[in-house]
Amino acid sequence: MIAGANTDLFGRRWFLVGGNLVCFVGHIIVGTAKSTNQIIAGMALTGLGAGTCQMAAFALTELLPNKWRHIGVVLADLAVYITVVIIPITARYGYFVGNWRTNFYAAAGLQAASFVGLLLLYFSPAHPLGLPYAQAFAELDYIGIFLFIAGFLPILMDIIWASSFPSTDAHVVVPLVIGSVVMVGFALWKTYGNAKHPLTPNNIFTSSRGREFTAPCIALAIINMFYYSSSIIWPTMVTVFYADPKDWKRAAALSLPQGLAITLGVLLSIFGSKIRNWQWQQAAAVTIMVIFGSLLGLGNPGNQNMMIAFLIISQVGYGRAIYLCIAITQMVAQAVYLAISTSTVTKWTAKLVPVAALGAGVTADQITSLMGLVGTANFTTTYDASVVTAVNGAIQKANERGIQGIAYTSLAFGIVGIIACLFCKDVDAKMTNKIEMYIENSKMAERNSHH
């Protein structure tokens, strides 16, 4: 949010170079971690760097003719497609074999290569708006940056804490109230403030009554939320319903459909300029994603093949929709879904497990100790097979409820996303040979308005 708007003041180069460097450091910290706190610190750094690296999708496409933008975005994320296919496999291998650190060392190596490549080859205009650095720093929207951070962080904390505390607890209520009030202040500042270079310029968001930028932004947010919902629902199904916890190879194989389906959907982007009617392509892809993504809420231990089919169709829709939306427009979601899943599963586990245990012969005075052992290695050695089977069945039912909660929530968001797609404008007239920006180390650099 903060880096994106300000690259127009300071240029893209150092944001991308710096982002890759920060990610590299973060991966090394996690890979060498000796404690949980070190892992948290490394992941925080990685998240910070990744936020600025997201600009690559826009930095690359502005160097291409507008009619190739959708293809440029796909190329910018080329490594992502490989990652979403192989990482679920290498992650499970690392967890069970004990060599999980290799995943982070590999990521660090790729970030280092990206850092060096950008440092040596990517020279975007340093002053896209023609402002000297001193003036740009003086005219930064400091108030907007402060209000956004001060409002967004408490809301994010509230979402996380909602999975651990009751909704009436101060941990949940206070951050929500503070964050909401500050975000209202942020909205008022954006509307009535006098920042010379606002973080969220009103003219962009209100252009064509919101159809040119705001509607695609809403659609983009919803599309990403569906990716996170599927990335929680499907691994949960695999772990709880379809694979023995000790059989990591089967679990790894079952993780393949999601990544492969996304890759297939992405590759369909090459037909975008032939089909045209971009907004209808977008609406169709999002509708497919929403319908079949929501149908994952029907998952249970007995319908694996049906769920794989729904997952593949939904993720093909996601892969197609995400790049269409970026072509049109150019983390909160995961926290929301995890909070819903955790609270729902906890609630239903407390309801279903005692009943199942009592039915299997456990006495009422043993329920408290049994609940304390559920999910631990000692559970299966403390109780006989009939109790373990009954309790595991109850846990599966509780997880079904959690999956349904995520699916139904994503459906509500998805409907909003479909409506947003219907308001998007067709961009076919803008798919021309025009190039918005040239790198400074090319023969065409003199065509840039500012350097």
UniProtKB/TrEMBL annotation:
Q: What is its main location?
A: membrane
One GO cellular component from the entry? Answer: plasma membrane
Name its cellular compartments: Membrane
Q: Which InterPro entries match?
A: MFS_Str1/Tri12-like, MFS_trans_sf
Question: Which positions are tagged coiled coil?
Answer: none
| TM ranges | 14-33, 39-60, 72-91, 103-123, 143-164, 170-192, 213-234, 254-271, 283-301, 321-340, 352-374, 406-424
The species is Calycina marina
- Record's superkingdom? Eukaryota
Alphabetical keyword list: Membrane, Transmembrane, Transmembrane helix, Transport
What is its membrane topology? Multi-pass membrane protein
Signal sequence residues: none
Q: Name one Pfam family in it.
A: TRI12
Indicate what this protein is called per its UniProt record.
Answer: Fungal trichothecene efflux pump-domain-containing protein
The protein's GO terms of the molecular function aspect are:
transmembrane transporter activity
